[in-house]
Amino acid sequence: MSDTTIDTNVLGDKIVRVLKSIFDPEIPVDIYELGLIYDVFVNEDYEVKILMTLTTPNCPVAETLPLEVEEKVKSINEVKDAEVEITFDPPWSQDLMSEEAKLELGML
């Protein structure tokens, strides 16, 4: 093993912290707790790919939110590049929200 092995847990935690700083403008909950992040991939070149969805296909931030996610993830020192892929498969539903998000929105 080389010394340059990525500690994906540490980097993953940093990425999650960044994602938790991004909020859906219509819901006072961050995109991570809302369940909008489906997957995060990091390759050995420190390039990050994030598979995410939006609450609706015609979400008012459909243009800006993915860019905000890319920019904020790119701002992490170890990350060389970040790309967001939007998917609506499976479509987002309230079932994807964390207990914390449901509690925050008075759904529990």
Task: Briefly characterize the structure.
The protein has 108 residues and is α+β, with helices and mostly antiparallel strands. The protein has 3 helices and 3 strands.
Strand order of the largest sheet: 1-2-3
State the shape: globular
Number of strands: 3
* Estimated helix fraction: 25-40%
Give the termini separation: 47 Å
Average pLDDT number = 91
**How is the biggest beta sheet arranged?**
3 strands, mixed
Describe the structure.
With 108 residues, the chain is of the alpha+beta class. The chain is 27% helix and 17% strand. The protein has 3 helices and 3 strands; from the N terminus they run H-E-E-H-E-H. The chain starts with 7 loop residues before the first helix and ends with a helix.
